[in-house]
Every structure is written in C-alpha cells, then in structure tokens.
Amino acid sequence: MTRAAADPSYRLGVDIGGTFTDVVLMSTDGSIFSKKVLSTPPDYSEGIETGVSALLAELNIAASQIREFVHATTVATNTIIERKGAKVGLLTTRGFRDVLEIGRFRTPKLYDMTYKKPAPLVDRHLRLEVDERIAADGSVITALDEVATTAAAKVFAAEGVEAISVTFINSYANAAHERRAAEMLRQFLPGVPVTASVDLLPQLGEYERTSTTVVNSYIRPVVERYVSALKARLDRLGIQAPLMIMQSSGGISPGDVVARQPIDIIESGPAAGVLGGQRLGVKIGIGDMLVFDMGGTTAKATVIEKHAFSLCPETEVGGGAALGTRMIKGAGYPVQVPTIDIAEVGAGGGSIAASDAAGGLLVGPRSAGAEPGPVAYGRGGTSPTVTDANLVLGYLNPHALVSGELKLDMDGARAAIAALGERVGLPAIETAYGIHAIADATMLRALRGVSSEKGRDPAQYAMLAIGGNGPVHACSLAQAAGMTHIVVPPVAGLFSALGMLFADVEHQLVQAFYRRLDETDLTRLEEAFAPLRARGLEMLRAEGFATPDRQSVSLFADLRYMGQTTPLTLPVPDGADALEKLAAAFHTEHAGVFGYASPHEPIQFVSLKLVCRGVPEHPRMPDQARRSAEKTATAHVRRAYFGPEGWFDTPVVPRAALAAGAMSGPLIVEEYDTTIVVLPGWSAALDSWNNVLVTRSAA
Prior knowledge:
It is built from 16 helices and 38 strands.
C-alpha cells in the first residue's frame, strides 16, 4: 500500500467518549483519516493505543511522521463523578476547617428537604488547622506556626495521604505563609503532590478557592498516572510528538503542565467540539450558531455569537449532567477556572429506555455506555437504548456501523423494543419513535438552556450538528426549536477529535487586584500585570514560542460595582484613556447582562487575568478538509419511519452524492462515523468546505 499523502507530516487528535474513542489524523494538505473504536473502561488509554495503531497500520503511515498528538479526555471528570480520586489532606487557617462543609446556600432541588449536599472530597480528620493569619490588606496578623505545620505533615504521612492542598485565609493578598507551608510539606513528604491555592487561584472567595484547590489535588495523582501511562503507550507506538491536552477554555497545553494542574481539563472533550465549531464558523462565514453535540452518553449545547463562544468563570463538577452553570447550582463542587459555557443533559445514543411506575416511557439519564452498550451491539446489553430505537426506525444501517467494523443485532434490538412496548402498551414501532421523541425533548432543554433562557431566539441561529448521534437527531430537534438551517461538518461523528487540531497553545493566568477603579492609575495597573505577563511569556518560551511574533498576550479584568458579589470579565483596552474606556464598557456590559447599569456607583477591580497564546508557524485549520481512504455507502433505498408522516422508501446516499446538487428529504446520508437523517420538508446540499447544509424547505 502506498502512503496516504505525499507530505510525510501528520497531526493526530484523539477524543475519548463514554462509548467510543475517536481518532483523527490530518495531513498538512487537509486530508483527513479517521478511526472509531469502542472505548475501553477502566483503562481508556488502551482504546487509544488500539485505535491509533490500527489507523496507522491501515494507512501504512510510520509513527515517526506524527508531529503532534492532541488529546481530549474525560478522566478528570470521571474521577470526580465516580469518587475514585486521591486521598487528600487539607491544611488551612485555624477556624476554617469546615469551609468545604459549610459551602454556599445552594441546592439544585429547591423544595426537597431531604436533599444532601455532596460530601466534601477531604474527610474531616484530614482537614488540619494551623495558627496563622493574613489581613485583607496583606499585613501579617499572626505568624505561621511552623511547629504546627510540621506536626500536620506528620499526621498526613501517618494517614498515607496521596495529595495535599494548602489554603490560608487572605493568601491572595500575601502568599508568604501559604508558600512557606507548601514548601515545608514538600520537604517532609517528597513525592506527594502539594497544591497551594495561590499557585492555582490567587483571588477572593475562600470557599471557591478552597474547593478549586481540593478538586485539583483530588484528581492530580490520577491524571498524573494517566498522562504517564499514555506517554508510555505512545512510546510503544513509536510516536515521539509532544503530548498536548485540550483545556476547558478552548486551548491546548502540554501534558506535563496539565498533570500538575488538571483542574484545567475538567471539560476537555466538549471544549474541543466547540472550538472546532467556532473556527469552522469563521472559515465559512457563519458567526451565530448553536453547537449541538450528541454522543453515546450525553448531549451538549453551546452558543456561538459573532464568532465567539462564552467562557464561564466558575463551573461545578461531580454533580452529574447539568443544564449550564447559570441554571443549577449546588449539585457539585465549584471550581473557578475558565470553562466554555456548555449545557449538558443525560441523553445520548446509549441512553436506556424504560417504563416508569405509571406505565410511561423514560429515556436516560442512565446509559449503557461502551460496556455492555446498546442491545444492537451484541455485547451483552439487554435494555433498549436510543440507538436501538433509531435502528428499528430505519435511520441507521441495519447490518453494521463504522463501515462494517461494528456488526449490529437488528433482531435483538427489535425484540428489546417490542418487550418495552408491551410494558407501556404501545406497538414496537411507536415505542421506538417515542424513545426518539423523548430523547429530542430532553436535548431541547439543553438548546434552550443556552439560547431562549438567555433571551436569545434559537431560530436566529444555525445549528452545527456533531457527534456520532447529533446528525441523526438534528432535523427533528431543529424543527422543534424553530430552527431552519443545519450545518453537518466533515467527520461530524469525530468532530471533537478534529476540532482540537485547530486549537492554539494557551495559558490563562489570574492575580488578585482588589481596589477601586477610580483609585487606580495605568502605572499601578501595569505593575500588577507585569508578573503575570512575565510568567506567561516564560511558559510560551519553554514550549517553543521564543520570539515576540510567536507570542500573543491579551489582558482582562474582573470588575463589579462596590458591594456586589458577581464580577464581569472585560478586556482591558489600550491607550492613555484605557481606564475610562474600561468603566464605560463595564456599564454597558452590566446593562446587557443584568438589565440595568448604575453609572454613579463606584466600580471595583476584583482580579486581573492574562491569556497568552502561542502563535503557530502555519495555520492550524486547513483551507479545506476532505476525507480520504475510507469506505462510503453505496446508494440504495431503505424503509424509514417518520412518526405522523409514517413509513417512507428513503434514499440512502454517501456525502459525495450531494455534490451533484441539493436533494430533498426524506433522505439518509450514511457515513463512516455518523448518519444524517433529513426529514420530509428539508433538503441537503454540499458547500465549498464539504459541509452538508440541511435547510427547511417547506412548512
């Protein structure tokens, strides 16, 4: 077999989901090769090795030709959800031992008097106190008791803690005590990772700062082991390219950096799809879109406006699927790291359908995952899922998925759906359509969570449908939301793995800056930014971005009116009148977010933020992406059921067939990694970037 392309240089993206592991290989000319394999819990890195080695063997590509390896992983999130993290010790100021337990008065179930907050990630006997106290202005009230610190270290050693967090009150104003305590713990407990809050989140809010630091410690040993094991697997494959990992903010960072600060990859996987969608929107001229990503376990939605996605300064982890940070609080552990604003619901292809006590249909949030998977996978699953329903409805290939690599048990899926139908009193086909429709209704909550519940009309946006199951449900979901335009990109079912190859190396740094804006001048502001800038540029230089033309730095400030709790983040403008422009921008943004502005109220700085990016030598995104060396469907006709419209003899075609011109629904576009279901009244066509554009053509 000949090599896949003349250019011997490739970049590799790998995304691990709850059901599938997606591998995408992209050459410098935009040729895309992909592989989809079942995920391998509990060791997900095994699936990576299996998928990568199989793809390289199929294409006869040498591992030495891979110059970059980018990875998105759910290992951090899963560690918290499954409560399988490290045994953590916490050292804090005397009197603040129970900050994690007290928390904030938030609950996701407003009238449930029996609801219990999630248990702290640090047992109380491992939350130790020492005498020390820093005032809010940074002055020392009580010196650090180093004897007590040594005693605490001995307790941690005797208890066998695997990671330690240090959070002292007001350490953001003066880090001396916290840094000294962390240094002593590292000396006394070599090999045990110690995270000081000032190195992670030097800003106001003792509960959020403590929670963020503890979560980082809880997952750090797990992520360190994962990164180490993954590097070992890459070495066995002969891949010497640097390991880069997707961050929650939409940038990528070296594996070694992520291993020390894994809190940055909590939403690693979903961020890759959003970043890819944003870059694609710039390329094809669509600035406003709703990204809809449906995989095997969950469905996610994000809004992109004017070619930009929103970042949340705080999110919660460990509380299960949630409808966005602005809607539900108190279900998990707060972490204050920049995270793309994503609404998530427990609805995916593997979501299990069942009957409730009243004989009605339920879909999700329980998922069959990769093991045992849907009934149709023939791997021991007995409960019908959304994938089984879509198979019975005729939307999916009745024989196999991923070009025949995953054989399907159509008879088993039909029997499972029929058995559920008997329990709910419906024929099998209506049961299957009901499962499909209920999944749509659940996912519509996520779409509305990022659109109508923020005052935006989803009908004004195009939908970007990605994920293995996204294009299957895109038309019916868009129709329910009043949307009329859908974009299905190339490699839609593996788009997160592709999207992370478009991301830049990025670091986001923060520093407390607690003072009134009208009492600040540009000199003081620049002095405060200077250490952040120096630290950020040093990180970029260490990663190969050595010259100013390869470095990009953006400055931001968190501002609020005096007495408020929630700040707003705004870019710091240039020029001698930067502070006046910043104040005016804050009033405008406050009116847009909260519905009012108070121009006569004093404005207060809370913190300063710096985003530094490495500028690549070559564009991260090709002018055009095209799939290569993969099997495509042969055009044929299949019976498919469309609810009230009934059964249709539906054409099934490959994506390339749309190059000849638009085709009207009902239509099924069958691909290696996904299936596009075009409803009656909709039509599909190809654009110049090889996207399938699905538009509503009739009422």
